Every structure is written in C-alpha cells, then in structure tokens.
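Hey all, quick one. A colleague (J.T.) asked me to put the S-adenosylmethionine job into the tracker so the inputs and the structure tokens live in one place instead of scattered across chat threads. No bug as far as I know, just bookkeeping. Sequence used:
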Amino acid sequence: MSIEFDQSVIETVRRAGTRALDWLIPSDDCRFELTDIVLSAHPSPTSESQEWMLSVRVATNNRALVLGQFADLSPDGFRGFHDNYVIGFVHSAVLAEHGLELGRLVQLQLDVHESPSARPSDAYRYLPLSEALARGALTDASPLARRMRRYELAHLLVAGYAVSGPSPGMIDAIEEFCRDHAGVTVIDAFSGTGSLARVALVAGAARVSCVDQSVGHEAHGTLADFPGRSEFLSADAFDASFEWPEADLIVADPFYDHTYLVTRNLLPRWRGSVSTVIVNLGPSSAMAWQERNTCAIREAGFSVETRDAFGEAIAWCTVR
Ligand SMILES: C[S@@+](CC[C@H](N)C(=O)[O-])C[C@H]1O[C@@H](n2cnc3c(N)ncnc32)[C@H](O)[C@@H]1O
C-alpha cells in the first residue's frame, strides 16, 4: 500500500539521503545518485498493526538498486522523524551491498552532535532510550521502542548515524526460541550491554554469557537483576584462542561489516558445541550479501532458515 505523506517528511528524507550520498566516496565505476524514496505500510507479521517501511533507491551508474529497507517507523513516528535513521540506513545498506570495497565509507554521527559539517568519529556509543525518545529519534509507538519497554531495555547502541542495537528482529527471534526451549543456556555474542541476553533470560533462558570486546558493559546494569545467571566476558570474538563457554544457543548480532566473518569463521568453530545459532545477517534487501552468508552457513554444517524482520535478515541456523 502506498501512502501520501506530508511533503515536509519527503523533503527531510530526501535531504538526509542526499547528504548521506555526499559522504560516499565515488570512484570511476561507482557513483551514487538518490533517485527515489518510497514510504509504504505493510501488515505486521507479529501484531494487528501495520509496519511502516522506508525504501531508498539509489542509482549507481544507471543501474537502479533498492539498497535496502528500514521498517522501524510508525504512523506518528513521522512527526519526530529523524533523518539520521535514513542516513544510517543508507550507509549500512551500501556497506552491506558493496562489502568492504566501500569500507572507506565515512560514518557520521548527527543525531547527538549538532554540527552536521563536522566529521564524526566511527565510535559507537549508548544512547538512553529516554533521551532518544525526547530527541524524537524514536517514537513510543515504534516497534523498537515497544520491545525495549517490554524487556525494560534502557540503552540504544548508536554507531555513526545508525541505530545499531538492539535489533527488533533479533529480540523477536530470541523471545520465540527461549519460550519454546525453557531453561536453555545462551551466549550473546557481540553483546554490547547484554540487551539480547536480557531478552533471553526474561523469556525463559536459565543462564547467559555475554561476549564483547569492549570492557565494562556490566556497568550499564542491563543484567543487574539476574545475579548468578549471567556473566560478561571481554574478548575478541575472532581471536582463535578464545574459548567459548558451553551453551545450547548462540545469538550473534555483529556489526554488519563483521557478518561474513561470523558466518565464515565462527560458525565452523561453534558447530561442535551448540545446536542452534541465531545470527543477524543485516539488511534483508542486500540479496548478494545474504546469499554469500547463507552459503557460508551451509558450508559450516548448518541448515538455515532466514526470516525477514524489520528490514533485517535473521538466520536461524541448526546443526545438520
Ligand atoms: C551491533 S552491536 C551489538 C548490539 C547488541 N546486540 C545490542 O543489542 O545492543 C556489535 C557489538 O560488537 C562488538 N564487537 C565489535 N567487534 C568485536 C569483536 N571483534 N569481538 C567481540 N565483540 C566485538 C561491539 O563492541 C558492539 O557491542
């Protein structure tokens, strides 16, 4: 269903999209031009409401590509619609579609610093949900805010322009798995503050181990009310000498540019010790990217079912 939107919304999106393209680094065979923006609504697979979808079409040298879709929008979300989402989305989608060839893309950070002309750092940081709502970066009715409230998750992870976590699709998948398999042990790989681990515990997991290379995530208090059932391990997940704890389920929510490293390098290592891995493969519309990852998953000895959730492809990998 296509919907008529207020012209100012369209302008915001266009401005944001165009500005995002200014930050892409063109080469002889790759130039970018924003050609089309589509806002639409779809019935939600998980509730009676509709999910709102934004598609951004960008032409690269006459070949029109739908680079991806972002669905964490809601009807009243447009009031506080924030162009950072578009930029983060465009950025992530291009990165995913073109892989590391465009790894020189500059990540920007507009939503919390006030100077769009300043080149922001690549660093990611945590933004309290309350602040994101107050700034209009997210609305109460959005699928992500609703899920964060349900699980009492306090922090968004913001990387460059993009909201990088928690992923609403991952939340739904973990909720479903842990409800169906009460008492499982879970590793939250690339855990950040442990938001997904918290979802697992609330939904019925017995115990979680969070693995992230950054230190001090426990200080955010995400798992403070589960003493004795959670641990934080500070480690580089790609370090071959790291000994992964025992678990029934591993949930992996890496940055998009790490996805292939996970499916190619980590899944073969995990195969011997877990039965199921749920991994966020990134933007579901990046078809070549998804194909490459699902091939790697199969080669690692797993069968895979991929579900599209809020514009991301969530892969359920089961040991064959
Ligand atoms: C997409 S975020 C995860 C978001 C998190 N699941 C959430 O819900 O907030 C990716 C995480 O990967 C971590 N990370 C990046 N490189 C890593 C590595 N080599 N080993 C372990 N963690 C890493 C980052 O510190 C970051 O917390």
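Adding what we noticed when we looked at it: The helical segments are 7-22, 83-98, 129-135, 143-150, 168-180, 195-203, 259-270, 287-299. The longest helix spans residues 7-22.
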